[in-house]
Amino acid sequence: MFKIIFSDIDGTLLNAERDLSNYTIETIKKLSNADIPFILISSRMPAAMRHLQKKMHIEHLPLISYNGGLILIDGKSVSSTEIPIHILNRLLSFNKDFDVHLSLFHNDEWYVPRDDFWTQREINNTKVQPEFENNQSVLERWTKENKGAHKIMAMGEEDKIDAIMAFLQQNFKDELHLYRSKPTYIEIAPRAISKLTAVQHLLDNHYKLPLSQSMAFGDNYNDVEMIQGVGMGIAVGNAKPEVLEIAHMVTTPGKEDGVAKSITELLKI
């Protein structure tokens, strides 16, 4: 009945060490044998997902990164939605008074303005090394290259993040998705996309499968549409209350192999 599975990473798939458990790796190998694609779908950049694909032996499968902002098949972009440069410039000039850490992402490029607490935290979380370059010179180069950002991470003290959040909501609420997973973080993405739009794109254009035959796992606000929209949307036990409420089913927490356990039970593999 279910022919494809989509899974979020952080808070959903990884164990307490922020890694893949052996049980999860073995379960995904069984899926490969059953010819059921297991697609990673995350707000992470592609480089922060590939090492996980490698461990599960699924490097040949598509990747959905930046909450659906970038879809890669065989390493090539088949769908790309970016935050335009004019919004980046406005945010940058507003941030001059606050000096909040702004990480800028485009495909496998990740630029940080300095080596600070936030940079080290993200390196630790994602196992990827950024490039050090101030925001202004990145934007000047991207303007010449006609590029925008797939994602911006604003990180800083809560009151400063409040100010950035208010500014973006006031000026760009129709153009941006603002995910605030913690009081000190805002993840900024284009409003035109979501994890569900990316799932739909891949099913329509690549796999030729209906949504009803897809399963998805998640834990956070950016997973809500996907979990509601697929044939079987499953929340891990540690998910946000809003996610638990709309899920078709709730499994054990991510750190306790909730994804692998559900796959084993539901697909009898």
Residue stretches low in confidence (pLDDT < 50, at least 5 long) are none
Strand order of the largest sheet: 8-7-6-9-11-10
- For the residues shown, what is the average pLDDT? 96
Query: What multimeric state do the chains show?
Result: single chain
- How much helix is in the residues? 25-40%
Helix/strand/pairing category: alpha/beta
Strand proportion, as a percent range, falls in: 15-25%
Tell me, briefly, the overall form.
globular
What is the count of helical runs?
A: 10
- Separation of the first and last Cα atoms: 13 Å
Largest sheet composition? 6 strands, mixed
SSE run = EHEHEEEHEEHEHEHEEHEHEHEH
Radius of gyration: 18 Å
Give a nutshell description of this structure.
The chain is of the alpha/beta class and 269 residues long. The chain has helices at 22-33, 47-55, 85-95, 117-126, 135-145, 158-172, 195-207, 224-229, 241-246, 258-267; strands spanning 4-7, 38-40, 63-65, 70-73, 76-80, 101-106, 109-112, 131-132, 151-155, 176-179, 185-190, 214-218, 232-235, 249-250.
Task: Please specify the SSE layout and strand pairing.
Elements: E1 4-7, H1 22-33, E2 38-40, H2 47-55, E3 63-65, E4 70-73, E5 76-80, H3 85-95, E6 101-106, E7 109-112, H4 117-126, E8 131-132, H5 135-145, E9 151-155, H6 158-172, E10 176-179, E11 185-190, H7 195-207, E12 214-218, H8 224-229, E13 232-235, H9 241-246, E14 249-250, H10 258-267
Parallel strand pairs: 1-2, 1-12, 7-8, 12-13, 13-14
Antiparallel strand pairs: 3-4, 4-5, 6-7, 6-9, 9-11, 10-11
Helix pairs in contact: 1-10, 3-5, 3-6
